[in-house]
Amino acid sequence: MSETAAAPQAIDLLISARWIVPVVPENIVLEHHAVAVDDGRIIAVLPLAEAEARFQPKQKKALGRHVLLPGLINMHGHAAMTLFRGLADDLPLMTWLNDHIWPAERRFVDENFVADGTLLAIAEMIRGGTTTFSDMYFFPEVTAEVAHSHRIRSQICFPVLDFPTSWGSGPEEYLRKGLNLYDRYRNSEWINVGFGPHAPYTLSDGPMRQIVSLAEEIDATIQIHLHETAFEVQEAINNTGLRPTQRLAELGMLTPRTQCVHMTQIDDHDVRLLVESGATVVHCPESNLKLASGFCPTEKLRAAGVNLTLGTDGAASNNDLDLLGEMRTAALLAKAVSGNAAALNAHQTLAMTTINAARALGRDNDLGSLETGKLADIIAIDLSDDLCQPVYDPVSHLVYSVNSRQVSHNWIGGELHLENGELLRIDLHSLRERVADWATRIRAEDR
Amino acid sequence: MSETAAAPQAIDLLISARWIVPVVPENIVLEHHAVAVDDGRIIAVLPLAEAEARFQPKQKKALGRHVLLPGLINMHGHAAMTLFRGLADDLPLMTWLNDHIWPAERRFVDENFVADGTLLAIAEMIRGGTTTFSDMYFFPEVTAEVAHSHRIRSQICFPVLDFPTSWGSGPEEYLRKGLNLYDRYRNSEWINVGFGPHAPYTLSDGPMRQIVSLAEEIDATIQIHLHETAFEVQEAINNTGLRPTQRLAELGMLTPRTQCVHMTQIDDHDVRLLVESGATVVHCPESNLKLASGFCPTEKLRAAGVNLTLGTDGAASNNDLDLLGEMRTAALLAKAVSGNAAALNAHQTLAMTTINAARALGRDNDLGSLETGKLADIIAIDLSDDLCQPVYDPVSHLVYSVNSRQVSHNWIGGELHLENGELLRIDLHSLRERVADWATRIRAEDR
Questions:
Q1: Residues A135 and A152 in one domain
Q2: What is the ipTM of this complex?
């Protein structure tokens, strides 16, 4: 009997690209390779010639001028607040909050506001290469529903505060509603529901402890604003005798499931608590700069072994949801803050928005790299633009030179959401009208 | 006799726009106005209805979703180095220079390199809304020629150093060649030739004094790298007993015609010297961050009355020539550095790239604002993009939200260079091939 070649395997999709940056293994760039996708997952990453012999794809996408990489993960934001983008800038923090953002929230934030604002954010994020986002805002069940129906992945951290808001009367109701939301999506591949204790200064020890124990019981993530400003840290010391990080550590809240957002104003003891606990830091450099919050010492944290991730924060304090731009800001800022031009290099910065974020979500088996077995969340960026030549190193290019408008394709679970820069699954025309309507009403009330 | 309306005046061009930000007068936004252009100059800025009654334009451009503003002025760069974009990143400053940039310069920089690199830079700058750029590099006569033939305005600061380079043997030859260049363009509306004493640590007192006296005699500008790093300042104190700013002041080099580039590491005495002399500061935030040089205290300088401008620096240390992005970085960074979220607001940031820059060039009669009598250097930015809605304040939007790809039109002296994002006067196809060829050769030599 003679040997015959195995028949090619039928698969859904084969994407080939000039460069592939798989993120894991780290620090490599593959040239003239392909990613094979079937049933929403990556089944191989291999040289193109080999891929063509081995697979019979229903669909082929040849991206000869592009770099392919894992979809980006935006680890902190308030999607609905996109409707407040640029409403009030260049103001001291308390004026911004007291005179603009909080009155506008009281007046306008309801289910419809959250639905429209979230969809606008999702459109911008998919356009910019994001495939998973984390959110913390009122009416999280609406955010979850909009994200779910538009097939983008998300971590929805429902807010818990001591005081009443439009979404609930206090900790008991927030937790009850949040746990219902958790139950609704507990087996979802698309939505992870986590706890969102708003901040140390808005939540007392009792509900903090409840969250610690509930999150452990159901193995859920916790996201909290922490050490955002010097004022916060000083007030905490005045009121509790403890720095906020120390207080959370004593409450048992710092674990590998915990995501600490901002983390400016941190000292060596804070760093040690982060390292020992395995908690993640979510760095939001543009928001920290714009609100004059201070500098997160990212290079120091990275060198100490802290899991570092990146978030845009809400568009009201950024003023965009451009994660490529945020990577650039993070990489540039880390160098000046640490006094070391070699700090936070391009590969490390890309890890923050991919594999490190997947780890923070407890989903590094599924997300964060282009590896066999992972979900097919994949983006392509066109590096052929004449005005960003030459390209010596595609990863350096991604972080320091690329304009987010060069993101050309975005697949989530193997489904194409963006093709040659055009959104395929969002009706921008009807969204535009609703956004214009909100803007007219919000502008009329803002003084 | 009955009165008759005056016949409409024939003009070259009438541009109307949804918003016009003239920059002077400051802090205003005009709605539904138009700019009338004739013979390369602005002859009126007025309400659209009035413009239509008063003028009979040969050409009309109605930009109903756009903001119109003065062309941006990039006050510091090394255009030819665009061919080294991303050649070597994430390295300590001296490794970057010694092992990559300087060897590549020695090997490749000649007239052809400067011509092709400069044209690539000009294409990127025009696409991003720049209408005037300042340059300091070897073979400045080539940079001037390429800029002149492509009808973009420039300030060409010819380099002067103590030591020989590919362009000359020492101060005497640099000055001789530079003064020839000055003579060639002395009456040009397009090219201003200025002195480029490279830095305090590369030029001794003798040629510094010569430059001071020559520049005064011919009323030319001087641009110098100053206080770029802490190392520079400390070495200067060790070697001369003086901080670099103090040394320049004693040499008579600080005048209203002097542009000090970088200015990190400055103390109160340095600020006083800048204020007293009327010298300009050219802030290059992204380069300062990327090379870990430190922070220029822009808000402090602004509040003290120093004329503040903005530059991208070369693409080798940025890695783009996107002045809108640089404005955003400057505005964000100023807040965190000063600890004040109200620092360097959007209007003040826009002034840095327009009227303040025009003042630094000694050309505020011609450039830097949309005012009657000024040269018609005008850009339009399309604010209708669905993914950066809503627009509450177009100036805040320009600084904090706009993507440089939204720059749609660019007129220099009334001539259209960019239309709906397409470059009209540069042959990108042939440029692309030459750039690819340089990149191949440079990559082969870089280790």
A1: yes
A2: 0.97
